[in-house]
């Protein structure tokens, strides 16, 4: 049987991906340019007995998502930069309490209310360092409608596997544009469900590192009782200030991601084998970059594209290798230079790193990128 | 058809031009199996203001989703014409609503005029289908998708009770568009 196809907005594909992943809970507060994610889920969640709640604000929405996840429900919220700013305290809470959840950030211009209907890519550092304290972060940056679907599914998988919040960031352009999507059949994409505890309720400890880097999380309502707090805690979940516990827990929570960075990493490379100049771009900007690379190749310029799909953890190893191969890297992003700092750090001076930025609410067009490549040749 | 064909629909917010773009993209990508991307830009207003919807159609996968050089542009209002009737390629096509655009944008492209709103109101009977009249005219003039595919895409989009109305609007627009080329 032919697969189901449709012309969908990126935001609609995100909601469809969440449903495919087994999401049963959404809480959020509408905000342009993310609202269609909520709108779609408000229609589809009730059809499977899931819950959709429009909360009084973004902070409450994040709290509801954490609470729902603690009952075992795959949970999601969708917002834009201003909403993510408000959620930061609770994102940190989900990090330390190790509660799986997915946060969708459809990026617009900023800071603050910024430009609601214009695209931006200026929340990419916030995805890593928005909440205070040492913590691991996973952030995915799809660049097509189809990829928004698959990366939303992957976000749920990673959230459940590593027991943590995972962010999916795409700009307004990809969120609002419509493209054909081919829906994967059930079972076609991997779905990771939460590991159930093997200990009985009497001896269960929610942060027992002897159970592995990611201890199993019991669901409230299944007979398990345990303490959840934002404080540093011992294996049983109760607060502690004992140095050995605090240190070990902090390191475990960061290493559970960093030790598996290679498995979480996902990139696309286009014409990089013989590239002399590399364009490093993500999201909708990577689409402009690909167009520019094709135009440059027609002129005999050996340009290539590196497109991270996992933005955090940062693809340092591959970026470093390409920095040794290429004369220059052009980092193009719809902000005034954020990921370029990470690229420079990875390049370690092995090649020139320059930026091509734009923050006027217009997309970075292929001509801009091509001109910058020629400038550094 | 060249590899990449770019169409821009522009007018006042609420005139249904984003819908016209979506229908065209559906005709190309879902019915004809080509690659198509539809995007839009709009202001914070829910109604009024100038809005545009762009459709890129290609035989190959589409990377950059916005217009680079427009093959065909529609402007339903003066504000839209002033703001969006630019970046049209040499020898390209600009279709204006004959009643609502007085000042014609200047450029190296062919300008056509059709009283789209009037056709919708007087000939079809409902002003609300002006976007479908416009879509019909653009398809008739450009042939970027087949008449059958576009009509099917229109009918898929509208509720049963409005199918005849929209069919009439599309076909009238298509015929009038074709006539303009003669």
Compact description:
Chain A is built from 13 helices and 15 strands. Chain A has 377 residues and is an alpha/beta fold. In chain A, helix 3 runs parallel beside helix 4 and helix 10 crosses helix 13.
Short descriptors:
heterodimer, A: 377 residues, alpha/beta, 5-stranded mixed β-sheet, 13 helices, B: 182 residues, Pyruvate-ferredoxin Oxidoreductase, domain 3, 6-stranded mixed β-sheet, 6 helices
Task: Provide a descriptive summary of the structure in words.
The complex is a heterodimer of chains A (377) and B (182). Chain A is α/β, with parallel strands linked by helices. Chain A has three domains: 5-182, 3-Layer(aba) Sandwich (Rossmann fold); 209-261, no CATH class; 269-376, Rossmann fold (3-Layer(aba) Sandwich). Helices cover 39% and strands 20% of the residues of chain A. Chain A has helices at residues 10-21, 35-44, 58-70, 81-97, 124-129, 145-162, 172-176, 243-258, 261-264, 283-298, 316-325, 339-347, 366-376, and strands at 5-9, 25-28, 51-54, 75-79, 101-109, 115-119, 138-140, 165-171, 178-182, 267-270, 277-280, 303-308, 310-312, 328-333, 352-357. Chain A is globular, with a radius of gyration of 21 Å. The mean pLDDT of chain A is 97. Chain B is α/β, with parallel strands linked by helices and 182 residues long. Chain B is 41% helix and 25% strand. Chain B is built from six helices and six strands; from the N terminus they run βαβββαββαααα. Chain B has a six-stranded mixed beta sheet with strand order 2-3-1-4-5-6, sandwiched between helices. In chain B, 52% of the residues are buried. The interface between A and B is medium-sized, with 21 and 21 residues.
CATH architecture of the largest domain in chain A: 3-Layer(aba) Sandwich
CATH topology of the largest domain in chain A: Rossmann fold
Overall mean pLDDT of chain B: 94
Summarize the biggest pleated sheet of chain B. 6 strands, mixed
Q: Which range does the strand content of chain B fall in? A: 25-35%
Give the class of chain A from helix and strand content and strand pairing.
alpha/beta
CATH superfamily of the largest domain in chain A: Thiamin diphosphate (ThDP)-binding fold, Pyr/PP domains
| Beta strand % of chain A | 15-25%
The unreliable regions of chain A are: none
């Amino acid at each position: 049987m032919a697969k189901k196809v449709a012309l969908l907005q990126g935001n609609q594909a995100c909601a469809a991906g969440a449903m495919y992943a087994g999401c049963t809970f959404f809480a959020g507060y509408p905000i342009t340019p993310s609202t269609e994610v909520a709108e779609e889920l408000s229609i589809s969640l009730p059809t499977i007995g899931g819950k959709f709640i429009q909360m009084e604000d973004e902070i409450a929405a994040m709290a509801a998502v954490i609470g729902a996840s603690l009952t075992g429900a795959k949970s999601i919220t969708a917002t834009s930069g201003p909403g993510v700013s408000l959620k930061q305290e609770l994102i940190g809470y989900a990090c330390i309490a190790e509660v799986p959840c997915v946060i969708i950030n459809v990026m617009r211009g900023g800071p603050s209310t910024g430009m609601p209907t214009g695209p931006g890519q200026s929340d990419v550092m916030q995805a890593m360092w928005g909440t205070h304290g040492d913590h691991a972060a996973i952030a995915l940056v799809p660049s097509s409608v189809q990829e928004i679907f698959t990366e939303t599914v992957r976000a749920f998988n990673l959230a459940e596997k590593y027991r943590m919040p995972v962010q999916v960031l795409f700009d307004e352009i990809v969120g609002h544009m419509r493209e054909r999507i081919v829906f994967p059949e059930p079972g076609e994409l991997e779905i990771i469900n939460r590991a159930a505890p093997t200990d009985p309720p009497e001896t269960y400890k929610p942060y027992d590192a002897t159970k592995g880097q990611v201890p199993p999380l019991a669901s409230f309502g299944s007979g398990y009782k345990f303490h959840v707090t934002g404080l540093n805690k011992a294996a049983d979940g109760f607060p502690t200030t004992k140095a050995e516990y605090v240190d070990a827990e902090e390191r475990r929570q960061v290493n559970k991601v960093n030790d598996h960075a290679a498995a979480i990493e996902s990139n696309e490379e286009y014409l990089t084998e013989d590239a002399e100049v590399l364009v490093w771009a993500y999201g909708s900007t990577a689409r402009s970059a690909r167009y520019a690379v094709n135009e440059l190749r027609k002129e005999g310029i050996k340009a290539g594209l590196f497109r991270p799909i996992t933005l955090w953890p940062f693809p340092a190893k591959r970026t470093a290798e390409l920095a040794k191969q290429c004369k220059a890297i052009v980092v193009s992003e719809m902000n005034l230079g954020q990921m370029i700092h990470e690229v420079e750090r990875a390049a370690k001076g092995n090649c020139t790193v320059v930026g091509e930025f734009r923050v006027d609410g217009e997309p970075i067009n292929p001509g801009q990128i091509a001109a910058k490549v020629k400038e550094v040749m | 058809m060249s590899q990449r064909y770019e169409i821009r629909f522009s007018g006042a917010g609420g005139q249904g031009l984003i819908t016209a773009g979506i229908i065209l993209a559906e005709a190309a990508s879902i019915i004809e199996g080509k690659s198509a991307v539809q995007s839009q830009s709009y202001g914070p207003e829910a109604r009024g203001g100038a809005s545009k919807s762009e459709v890129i159609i290609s035989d190959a996968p589409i990377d950059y989703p916005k217009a680079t050089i427009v093959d065909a542009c529609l402007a339903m209002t003066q504000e839209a014409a002033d703001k969006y009737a630019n970046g049209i390629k040499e020898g390209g096509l600009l279709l204006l609503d004959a009643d609502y655009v007085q000042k014609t944008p200047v450029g190296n492209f062919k300008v056509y005029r059709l009283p789209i709103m009037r056709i919708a109101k007087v000939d079809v009977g409902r002003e609300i289908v002006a976007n479908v009249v416009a879509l019909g005219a653009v398809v008739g003039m450009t042939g970027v998708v087949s008449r059958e595919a576009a009509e099917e895409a229109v009918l898929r989009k509208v509720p049963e009770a409005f199918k005849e109305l929209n069919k009439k609007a599309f076909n009238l627009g298509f015929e009038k568009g074709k006539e303009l080329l003669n």
